[in-house]
Every structure is written in structure tokens, then in C-alpha cells.
Write a structure and sequence with these properties.
Elements lengths: L16 H7 L2 H4 L3 H17 L5 H20 L11 H13 L12 H36 L5 E6 L2 E7 H26 L1 E2 L15 H7 L4 E2 L3 H6 L2 H27 L7 E2 L18 H24 L14 H24 L1 E2 L1 H7 L7 H10 L4 H17 L9 H5 L15 H6 L9 H36 L1
Parallel strand pairs: 3-4
Antiparallel strand pairs: 1-2, 5-6
Length: 480
């Protein structure tokens, strides 16, 4: 095999070994080999269809490329470290195996449009894998919610006891965060799934190519509209990285709660032994390491997003070699997010909650203070006045080490004469929860509505993801 660079004709001397080593992207873009080969199959078929290469050359190219696919899928494709990227490797393999026909594969394209097409196909698959994983986690949260409609717990703001809610209500808050994450990935998919192949280096090509045909063969929605933008656009990479980073932030929030809730101070939950570790010196320890590691790795994901944004911030049109550096951070993001989603789903599916301890904690912190203020409002007291009165009641209760429901009618009437015997009906914690029937509220009937809507959301998301996957599968069935 002739191992000269694809661009060697211009140069009297070949690059030094240090230049080859420094500029090589093979260690990263070898992960794109499968996509590079299928893109080449589509390109070869288009070239033959347009009469740019002979049918005989197409048959030789496609036959060899299909053999390469089998090698890639078996992990048997050997790439040459001396060649600077996966595209060069594949072209040299083709030329070595089918002769002159192999050297025709690069007609009417450049590595500039080739690599970004590969990356778009890879991220397209990653989006669908991530969406499937998010849906699995949402399903686990829905099951917890269904089983805990009346499990009482403190709701928090500023990490202070605020108002009583149910565990189901809390889990549904996480559910809807993840639902937005899924929608963001769907939105990003629409901009990822655009085909730049045929843009060539930046100006298009003089050959009579059919870009829509290639786009359809590869399962894209359409070809990109502008060839300069086609090779330089990495907005879709940044958008994907942002969606992934925000999802990791949401996972980190869940993990932070797992760390807190499994402490003796909270004692709300216990993680299954399978997802916990111990201490090398303290025999009693049960550490939530999985949750802590996801929380920690979120920083790396955000760092990769920032790296991508800074990479793009000062680039002139069109392709610049800086863009070689886009793949490592975005692939690292995928390698972090998918396993994090998968293992955290397992944690959620197996976690045990202590409903008695949760309810016991609602006895502290005056979680029914807002309800006491609302009570006065129903008696004609303006809310701001009621708020101040109840604040004074709370201060009195603190000094006397009493709960609001323990105060006598005489004590309450010292603060306002509108307090009456029926105040006892609004102070029990369960009553505080049951009265919050407003849309999206914590009353069991309101949360049941949220759960029902959640299942509708999942059904739509599954259907949307299935349609996307079927379009790609149909493309591969036609192409391969």
C-alpha cells in the first residue's frame, strides 16, 4: 500500500514523524469508521448513478466497503498509525484492494464534508441511545410516584423545611426535568440530521452530483443548504453538548439528594448494597459512591461543553484544523452521560424509602405555617397581615418549644381574634397536603394527574424515538 498522504503531490518532502504524530486524529476518529464506510457506500452509489464513475467501479467499491463494515463490526479492522485519520486509512485500504477504482471514491468530496457527515451520523445514534436511557429513568421515577401518592415528606427551599409534600410529588418534579431533556435532544436531532456530504472542501463541486439522493440514502432529513456552512458548522455539536450537560446537571441534582437522603441525619432512603461501597478502615460505612461519581463527572461534561464553545469562538469561515478537536470532548460527553443514566436508573429502581422517617421529619420546622396564614385569609385577614401574624406565632412557638398544632386556642387568640376552633382542621400535615389540589400541586389527586400525563409524555417520546430509529434502519436496509 502506498502510504503517502492524500495531499502529498504539492510537497517535495513528506511530513516529519513528529508532525504526523501531532496532527493525527486516528485515536479519536477511528470510532467513526463505521459511519465513514457507509457514507462512502452512499457516495459511490451516487457517483455511479450520475455517470461520474463506471458501474463496474461502483460494484468493486461497494463490495469492498461492505467487507470493511463486517470487519469493523467484528472489531477486526486494522488501521495504519502512519496515516493521519480514519478517512485516509479507508481510502488507502480501498485502493490497495480494488486498485484504480479505490482512488475514485474521493471524487466530488473532501475530508471536510466527509468527517462532519460521519460525526452527524454518530451523534444521531447517540441521541437515540440517550433518549432511550432517559425514558428508562423516567419510567422508574413514575413507578416510585405511583407507589407513594400518600407518602409524606418535608418539601425544601434553601435546604430548609418549607411545606409538606408527598414523595410522589417530589419524584414527578425530577420526571418533568428529564422530560424536558428528552425534548431538547429531539430538537437537537432535527439540526443534527442534516447532510453536508457533497459540500466538498467548501465551495461545492464541478461534478453533477445529487446531494439529495445521498442524503436520503443515509437517512438524513435533507442536505445542508450552503456548502461553506456545511463544512464549518459545529452548532449541532455545541447544542448536543449543552443538552447532555444539562441532563448531567439534572442527574447530579438527583445524586445530591441521594447523598443527603441516605445520611443518618435525613435517613429518608437507603441505596441497595449493589450500588454502594464500604470503607477500607471504617467497617460500618455504606457510601453512595455511584451518586458521588455522577455528581463529580458532571463537572467534566460541563468542562467539555466549555471546551467546545471556546474552540468555536474565533474561527473564520470555513473549515479550520481546530475543528479536529471537536470530536474528543463530544465523544467523552457521550461516554459519561450514557453510563450515568443507565446506572442511576438501576439505583432508582432498587432504592428503599423510609416513609415513617419522612413523615416524622414533617413534625419539625413548622411546615404548616403557610396553611395557618391561609386560614386567617379565609377569615378576612389580608395575606400580608396574616403572614406577619403567623411569623409572630412561630417565634412564640419556638421560644416555648411547641408545634403550631400544640398551641391552645387562648394562645392563638393572643395574636388575632379571628382564630377559632376550626383552626384545628387545617394544621394536620396530611390535611395541608390534601388541600393543595391546584394543577401541579402536591395533593394525591393532583399528583395522580401528573402521573397520568407523565405516561402520555412517555408514550409520545417512545413513538417519536421509534419513528426516528425506523427511518435510519430503513436507510441502512436500502443502502447495505
Amino acid at each position: 500500500m502506498d502510504r503517502r498522504a492524500l495531499w502529498s503531490g504539492r510537497f517535495e518532502k513528506g511530513p516529519s514523524s513528529s508532525t504526523l504524530s501531532f496532527t493525527s486524529s486516528l485515536s479519536v476518529d477511528e470510532r467513526l469508521a463505521w459511519y465513514d464506510v457507509v457514507g462512502s457506500i452512499a457516495h459511490a452509489r451516487m457517483l455511479a448513478r450520475q455517470g461520474i464513475i463506471r458501474p463496474k467501479d461502483e460494484r468493486l467499491l461497494v463490495s469492498c466497503l461492505k467487507r470493511l463494515i463486517k470487519k469493523i463490526e467484528k472489531g477486526e479492522l486494522e488501521l495504519c498509525e502512519d496515516l493521519e485519520d480514519v478517512h485516509t486509512n479507508i481510502e488507502f485500504i480501498l485502493t490497495n484492494e480494488v486498485g484504480e477504482a479505490g482512488s475514485k471514491i474521493h471524487t466530488a468530496r473532501s475530508r471536510n464534508d466527509q468527517v462532519v457527515t460521519d460525526l452527524r451520523m454518530a451523534l444521531r445514534d447517540s441521541v437515540l441511545e440517550i433518549v432511550d436511557s432517559i425514558i428508562s429513568m423516567q419510567t422508574a421515577l413514575l413507578k416510585i410516584a405511583e407507589n407513594n401518592l400518600t407518602t409524606i415528606m418535608p418539601g425544601f427551599t434553601h435546604m430548609q423545611h418549607a411545606q409538606p409534600i408527598t414523595l410522589a410529588h417530589h419524584m414527578m418534579a425530577h420526571f418533568y426535568k428529564l422530560a424536558r431533556d428528552t425534548e431538547r435532544f429531539f430538537d437537537a436531532y432535527a439540526r443534527i440530521n442534516v447532510c453536508p456530504l457533497g459540500s466538498a472542501a467548501l465551495a461545492g463541486t464541478t461534478f453533477n452530483i445529487d446531494r439529495k439522493y445521498v442524503s436520503d440514502l443515509l437517512g438524513f432529513y435533507r442536505p445542508c443548504e450552503n456548502s461553506v456552512d456545511g463544512v464549518s458548522d459545529r452548532d449541532f455539536v455545541a447544542e448536543y453538548a449543552f443538552a447532555a450537560s444539562l441532563t448531567m446537571i439534572h442527574l447530579s441534582s438527583i445524586c445530591e439528594e441521594l447523598v443527603l437522603w441516605t445520611t443518618p441525619e435525613f435517613a429518608f432512603a437507603e441505596m441497595d448494597d449493589k450500588y454502594s461501597t464500604g470503607s477500607s478502615i471504617m467497617p460500618q460505612k455504606k457510601n453512595p459512591d455511584v451518586a458521588e461519581l455522577i455528581r463529580g463527572r458532571t463537572g467534566g461534561t460541563i468542562g467539555n461543553l466549555v471546551s467546545l464553545l471556546v474552540l468555536l469562538k474565533g474561527l473564520p469561515m470555513a473549515y479550520n484544523r481546530d475543528l479536529q478537536e471537536d470530536k474528543s470532548p463530544v465523544l467523552e460527553i457521550t461516554d459519561t452521560l450514557v453510563p450515568s443514566l443507565e446506572i442511576l436508573t438501576e439505583v432508582i429502581e432498587t432504592i428503599r424509602f423510609d416513609s415513617d422517617e419522612m413523615e416524622e421529619k414533617t413534625k419539625n420546622g413548622f411546615l404548616n405555617a403557610t396553611d395557618l396564614a391561609d386560614y386567617l385569609v379565609t377569615k378576612g385577614v389580608p395575606f400580608r397581615t396574616a403572614h406577619e401574624i403567623v411569623g409572630k406565632v412561630v417565634r412564640y412557638a419556638l421560644k416555648n418549644k411547641k408545634r403550631l398544632e400544640d398551641l391552645s386556642m387562648k394562645e392563638l387568640r393572643n395574636f388575632h381574634d379571628r382564630f377559632d376552633e376550626d383552626v384545628s382542621e387545617v394544621l394536620p400535615i396530611l390535611k395541608c397536603i390534601e388541600r393543595r389540589r391546584s394543577y401541579g400541586g402536591t395533593a394525591p389527586e393532583a399528583v395522580k394527574t401528573q402521573i397520568d400525563q407523565g405516561y402520555l409524555v412517555l408514550r409520545k417520546q417512545r413513538g417519536r424515538a421509534r419513528n426516528m430509529r425506523e427511518k435510519i434502519d430503513e436507510a441502512w436496509k436500502t443502502l447495505l
